[in-house]
Every structure is written in C-alpha cells, then in structure tokens.
C-alpha cells in the first residue's frame, strides 16, 4: 500500500510520500533452488528496504498531494536534472519491477507477438538471450539491464526507461552482487523470468504507443488545418469589420436623413 503526495510551486517541485516495502508476488522460498530464500530476504530486507526508507526520509514534511511511485520517479527526474530523491525513488521502483519480472517455474522462451518482435530485432531468440546476458555482465558495479521498445538507453545508476514518459520496458534482470554475475544472469533468464508478465507489458506498451500515434496524428492534423484556415479566418474577420463600418456609416446617413425630415418623432 502506498500513500502518495506531491506539490508543485512555480518552477520548484517538492514531493512527499509514505511508502511501504511492497511484498513480492510469491513466497520468498518459491524461487529456490535458483534464488535462495536467505539471499532473497537479505537483498529485500537490506537493499530494497533501504531505498524505500531513504525515500521516505528525503521527502518527509513536504506539502501533500496524491502521487504514485511512477509519478515520483518522473517528477524527481526533473527532465534530466535529477532531484535528490530520484535515486531512491527509481531504485525502489526498479526493485518492484524486477520482482514482478520473475516467477516460480519461469524461464523458457517468449511466445506470440513478443517472440516475433525479438526475432525481428535480434535475428533469433538465442541471440537476444546472449546479448542480454552480455549487457548485464558488462554493467559496471551494480546496475540494471533492460529490454525496451524502440529506443536504446545506456545510463548509469538508478535511471530506468520510465523518465522518458514512454512505457517501453519489457523485462529486467538485476544482479544482487557483482559476484558470479554471469551465472546469476543465466539462471534468471533460463529459470526465473516470467515471459507471461513480459508479454503483458509488451501488449500495454503497444497499446500506449498506438494511442500516442493517434494523438500525435490528430494534433498534426489540427495544426495543419489551423495553418490553412488562418489566412481565411483573418480575411473573414477583416470583411466583418469592414461590413460593420459600412453598416454604421449607412446608419449614420439614414439618421441624418430622417433628422432632417418631417418625422422627428421617429427618434423618440
């Protein structure tokens, strides 16, 4: 459960929230023997909890307005000039995303539209797996490897694809330590990753991309129509003004005519 608050003042942004450590979507011993319960509890209780607790400390006391963790990440990213709370907010979000990317009895191979997309962009599924493993193993220090839509993102620390405001994430693998990282990454891809969750995210990303394309096309059409109609509207407005002036002059002439006639009562 989350309690989210935020306020924006002029050019300044302040955020506050009270976040609780979100429970994993499965019992912590269900990933054994590939990820032990002890390792899971240690990483969640030390690293994940630290990000949540530190985030709460950083944003404590600010004015309140409802926000999701997604919103906090976007606001604190601050269009590329991260605010102090960004790292902890993004890392808390990354960990939730990571836990949801795994399941007991996972691994195997993607299917359906997602598999076709992977084969289109990587040549074959096995090549994608190898490139993903290599990217994760080459990550300096602790970090994240992402499979995303359309864009390449190579960024350090907690930065994830979310700050671009585009839902292009497909799957993430996190190494809990630099020790035996290649082995851990291989096990994650072969035994733990939930391709059902990844496929569902892909469908959502496709739907949002389609909505954005429709909205962008609508805006372009409106802009084009505005440009085409602007001279016409300006001309019509000028004609209206001229007609009003003409009518006013005509009315003045009529008034003068009748004022000089034998019917002065007409104007009473």
Automatic annotation (TrEMBL):
One CC-aspect GO term: chloroplast nucleoid
One Pfam family here: Sod_Fe_N
The species this protein was found in: Populus tomentosa
Ranges in a coiled coil: 200-227
UniProt keyword Coiled coil present: yes
Residue ranges occupied by any Manganese/iron superoxide dismutase N-terminal domain in the UniProt entry: 18-102
Protein name stated in the entry: Superoxide dismutase
Keyword annotations: Coiled coil
């Amino acid at each position: 459960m989350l309690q989210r608050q935020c306020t924006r003042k002029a050019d300044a942004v302040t955020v506050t929230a009270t976040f609780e450590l979100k429970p994993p979507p499965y019992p912590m011993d269900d990933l054994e023997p590939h990820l032990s319960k002890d390792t899971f509890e240690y990483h969640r209780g030390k690293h994940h909890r630290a990000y949540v607790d530190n985030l709460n400390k950083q944003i404590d006391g600010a004015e309140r307005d409802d926000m999701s963790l997604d919103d906090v990440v976007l606001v604190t990213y601050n269009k590329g000039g991260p605010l102090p709370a960004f790292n902890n907010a993004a890392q808390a979000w990354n960990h939730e995303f990571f836990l949801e990317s795994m399941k007991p009895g996972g691994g195997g191979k993607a299917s359906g539209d997602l598999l076709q997309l992977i084969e289109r962009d990587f040549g074959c599924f096995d090549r994608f797996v190898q490139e993903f493993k290599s990217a994760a193993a080459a990550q300096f220090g602790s970090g994240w490897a992402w499979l995303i839509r359309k864009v390449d993102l190579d960024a350090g620390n907690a930065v994830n694809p979310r700050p671009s405001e585009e839902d292009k994430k497909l799957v993430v693998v996190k190494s809990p330590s630099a020790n035996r990282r290649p082995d851990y990454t291989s096990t994650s891809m072969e035994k733990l990753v939930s391709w059902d969750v990844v496929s569902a995210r892909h469908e959502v990303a496709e739907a949002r991309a389609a909505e954005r394309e429709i909205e962008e096309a609508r805006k372009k059409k409106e802009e084009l129509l505005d440009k085409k109609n602007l001279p016409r509207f300006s001309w019509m407005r000028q004609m209206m003004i001229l007609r009003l002036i003409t009518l006013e002059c005509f009315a003045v002439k009529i008034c003068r005519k009748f004022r000089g006639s034998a019917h002065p009562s007409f104007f009473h």
